[in-house]
Amino acid sequence: FHERPARVLSAHQSLADRVRSIWASRELLLYLITADIKIKYKNSALGMVWSMVAPAMQIGIYFLVFQVILKNGVPDYVIMLWSGMLVWHFFTNVVTNSTNVIVQRSGIVKKVSFPREILTLSIVGTAIVYFAIQFGVLAVLMLLMGHSPAWSLVWLLPLAFLAVVLLASALGIFFSAVNVYFRDTGHMVDVGINLWFWLTPIVYSYERTVAPTLHAHGVAWLYLLNPVTPIVLTFQRVLYGDVNVVANTSDHATLDVLPHWSAAQFAELNGILIAIGVVLCLGAMHVFGRLQGNFAEEL
Asked: Which of 83, 217, 222, 255 is most buried, with most CB under 10 Å away?
């Protein structure tokens, strides 16, 4: 009889020890982030400009469909659209790229001893760099269009960004470990992300399209179970700036495009998501630690 190899499903280190190990390996994390960016744009004439091409094309297509063809009537729609896309591009880049990172870097995983979570966190760090670039381009666009954000609410952006970083990191760490054992995970994540996009108010207005129906049936809370929704709405509220806009210059008719929530409500929602994100990150790291013992054999 051929003996089947035993799978090691117990962590060699406690969760606290692994967190300390990751912190001790922060120089390696920084190196991986820098190397990822350099390798991706090596011998490229435009360099990091390419990080804007695909997002810009996607935004352009949605702008053409929803603003020009379907005529949603939202002034400066591209600002609201880009504000939501900032969050979504960061979230999807982390989750989808992290899912395959352990498998793609199987060589280093099998040969070098280091906290494996570093590979997923390097994806997060790289996504933060791209987020900063895209945010800067949006700031320039707003300046050229003469569109001002809600300055009094800018302090909400760090809260919302921290929330999306924690949520994306948790999912990335979890799926990266599971994908080593079940290689269909990446395909399922891709399908799920595509569906998730249309359940998030990015290309359409939450207040115009979703809220009336949900409030009529008393289930507005159901839509907010999507954790990305409050984060997107926070970015849109701060960067787009207006809750009501003038839809028709002839009769000055107003249009509700964003929720009439107070700053405290936005802060509360993002605070809840931050707490959930911390718990999910710790849970994902626990699962990762349980599964990583057999990575070398599976790879």
From this structure: 83
Please give the pLDDT value at position 74: 78
The H or E element containing residue 256 is strand 253-256
Measure the CA–CA gap between 86 and 100, rounded to whole angstroms: 22
What would the pLDDT profile of 8-66 be if each residue is shown by its tens digit? 444 456 778 888 888 888 888 888 888 887 777 666 556 666 667 777 777 778 778 77
Q: How close are the terminal C-alpha atoms of the chain, in Å?
A: 24
Whether the CB-CB separation of 161 and 248 falls below 8 Å is answered with: no
Contact 85, 164 (CB under 8 A): no
Low-confidence residues of the chain: pLDDT under 50: 1-2, 8-11, 249, 251
Among 87, 155, 169, which residue's Cα sits nearest to residue 121? 169
| Both tokens assigned to 84 | 């939501």
Give which of 31, 189, 194 is closest to 97, Cα–Cα.
Answer: 189
User: What does the chain come to in residues?
Assistant: 299
Question: How far, CA to CA in Å, does 207 sit from each of 63, 198, 213, 244, 280?
Answer: 18, 15, 10, 10, 29
Q: Which residues have C-beta within 8 Å of that of residue 112, sequence separation ≥ 6?
A: none
Q: Which residues 6+ apart lie within 8 Å of 38 measured at CB?
A: none
CA distance linking residue 78 with residue 208, whole number of Å: 17
DSSP 189-255: HHHHHHHHHHTSSSSS-IIIIIHHHHHHTT-HHHHTTSTHHHHHHHHHHHHH--SEEEEETTTTEEE
* The pairing of beta strand 244-248 with beta strand 253-256: antiparallel
209-233 confidence digits (pLDDT tens): 777 777 666 676 778 889 999 999 9
